[in-house]
Amino acid sequence: MVTPSTQLTDPAIDTTKEQTKHAKKVTQLHPRFLEVKQHCHLSAAQLKRYSDPAALPSDTRSAPDLDVGFGQQRALKALQTALDIKASGYHVFAAGENGLGKRTVISRLLTRIAADAPTPDDWVYVHNFADPRTPQALSLPAGQAEILQQQVSQLWQQAKKRLSQRFRSDQYQSKIEAIKNATHQKESQAYDVLNAEGKQYDLALTFRSFDNKAVFVHSSQLPTESSSAADTAAEHTPPASPKSDNPQSAAKPNETAHRRGKQDKVPSGDDEYEAELDNFVQKNHMQKRLSQLTIALEQLEDEANDAIEALHRDIARRALQPLFAPVYQQFAAQPQVVDYLKAVSADMVTHAERIVNGDDEEFVTAALATTPSRYAVNVIVSHAPDSGAPVVFEDLPTHLNLLGHVEQITQLGTVTTDVSMIRAGALHRANGGYLLLEASHLLEHPYAWQGLKRALQSRKIKLSSLEQMLTLTGSLSLAPSPIDLEVKVILLGEADLYYELLELEPEFDAVFKVRADFHDDVTRSPEHELALVAKMADIIDHASLYPFDRNAQAALLEHLSLQAEDQDRLSLHSDLLIKLLHESDRHARLDGQHIVDAHHVMQAIDDMDERSGYLRDLYWDELKNGQQLIQTQGHAVGQVNALTVVSYADSEFGMPARLTAVIQPNIGAGEILDIERDVDLGGSLHAKGMLIMTSYLRALFSQHHALNFSASLAFEQSYAQIDGDSATVSEGCALLSALADVPIDQSLAITGSMNQLGEVQAVGGINAKIAGFFDACREQELTGQQGVVIPIANVQQLMLRDDIIAAVKAGKFHIYGVQSLSEALTLMTGLPVDTMNKKGRYRKDTLFGKVLNRLLLWDENQNVDDDIEDKDAKQTSQKKRKAKKKKDKKKRRQRQEDKGKKGNDDHSSADITTADESPDIAQP
């Protein structure tokens, strides 16, 4: 099959001699030609299969119920096998072309199955009080996650309110005051005892004004006015300092005055030294005692603080216990939840004062939240009770959308996160059910496939930071505990992608062990036609379209058979059917009708054909203007109208293309030059067809005579890529026509593949090819002789246009189905091809006989030429020899004449010499 944007030309026109031969042949048609023509001719009934409207519902409203698995029983059986097996790796790859409706079929089937399946558990993430970096995952029965979230939120609100009330009550204040007073009294008593001890050494306890530190000083260093000193000491004494009504403290001013009187006396030098030394030792001793007292007082303060904290915990525990007790009872069947609630209660008891004060961010409710993140219950996935298993389709399967992620916020340049920012992925939502993914979309996103594979193999959903994986940084983030995974994943994709994954991903087959193949079409039978009508009715109801009557249904079924390129098949492409239904409904609405008929369907088909026919119209414009040379009448040698298909984007149409063959006799040994292949315009399939045809011809004639020629084949006016082997038969016809010097009928076009035995094989795009040549003939006027020659194997694929069928019925256009190259050549040339005589040789009036005659003629001509050359060479050689002999004879005669003349001269000289030399001669 040729599938380029092909533009092809017509070479020469018939010569007068060829036209004369053809005229004779028309008047005397060969019986074999008439036999083959009658045998291969197709009737109009064979060109299209019509649906019987009477066997269809009156309109789609009375259509039967839809069978979800219609036409895809093989795929659904494979899917059911995977669903029944709970072992690891039994996930499904649904293979089939885009537009078949794989996702719709699988989703509907899974929805039915999931409705009766057990509802999976809910999952929540909560703060881990033991390790805040690893939030804890809790599972709850379906519907309980949101209840837990609401209960914890209410607990927080009530706890905060109740704690605030208890910590601001008079009872609490009185207990705190009692603890402080008791501590103050103990501190005062300790200071009084130490002060009394210091008096023995004439030392007084006072507090320095600049740092409020207790020190012992000599009585003489106290302020002059005792009242001022007492006031100063009292001013700097902490709450636990001694009180002024102490008897010892009251005696302090008189003693100080007495000592001051003693000091007023002037001591002697020795006495003064001894007094200072004694005072230093005593003061040092009392400072040590003061340090010991300070440590004791700190312990006393710690005990007081512990008592206050114990009071806080006791108050908080008594306040919170009535709040938490009913919630414990509510979730008694979930020990993990009860343990978590107890941890929340213990944490609130521990931090009751911070909760009441509200001065810590960890215990302040964030924006858009009702609970601090510390006590937040983050519902990852929740299901309604008895709702069945989830069926999830993720249209953007990125790593984050599949496995979930942890969000982060930036506040004042600091990146923070918490348990409330954990977000669920598609695997979380589908856990316990089914997940559908487009394989091509999954492979588009980095790390998505790796993350999915890891989760399915480990059967756990573990959130990981994609940022850390990409940047290789160690930034601090949460590491939530993994969640158990139990899911069936169905990947949707084309078969080519499945084979690529098998080849490039070693572990793919271990994860997706089941392949479900979806068919492109289904057998055309009355039952399947009704099932397709049910599918139409389902689409119509879903899209709220007008109903379609039985004639419209029949037109749609015929078009689906055309799309399947088979009279006995119906296309299952849902996208095409949906588009056709919508556009037919549009035409009915434009006509003001409330039911769609066959006319509206045909209008929609014509509109779709026109939209995709821009490139085709450009070709036809060139054909009309004479830029594309196509001859649909007359005869020509080595020239064939080949049927091709031009594929461009989503459009496909047929175009006739001129194929020519040229022979160079007495050059080469049967080589055939494929111009398309040599200039890299021919694809591998086209090259294969050429080699098969070449092998067939060599095997056909080399046993009878040496192939003393070379040939070349080319599609004229073709400037784009050509591929496919559907031109093999047309190439063979053109080449044999040129070899035999027999013209081919240009009113016929031909297509077909061929094997090495000369058998014609089926090709693709047969309906478009026939329509293309018919349009070309109609453009140049139908003569009643025009037609196409196609493989007989393609007859079952014919779903031709009604105007072509009408032309065939009227005898204005003909379609022939052939089984072999011989039948095709007979139709194209009007001659028998390979009839043999009794001696097993091709008859002279057959096409092959003419080919052998030409081969012999070329050989004889070559021999005659060789003889003429040999005779000329011999005559030339003889002439040269004669000329040489004549020349040699002349030379000898000349030498003899010269010798005779020289002899006369020698006689006279000899006489003279003898007379002179005689004495010498006489000597011995």
From TrEMBL:
Residues 653-831 form the Lon proteolytic domain. GO terms for biological process: protein catabolic process; proteolysis. It catalyses: Hydrolysis of proteins in presence of ATP. GO terms for molecular function: ATP binding; ATP-dependent peptidase activity; serine-type endopeptidase activity. It holds the Pfam family LonC_helical. InterPro entries: AAA_32, Lon-like_helical, Lon_proteolytic, Lon_Prtase, LonB_AAA-LID, P-loop_NTPase, Ribosomal_Su5_D2-typ_SF, Ribsml_uS5_D2-typ_fold_subgr. Transmembrane segments: none annotated. It comes from the Bacteria. This is endopeptidase La. It comes from Psychrobacter halodurans.
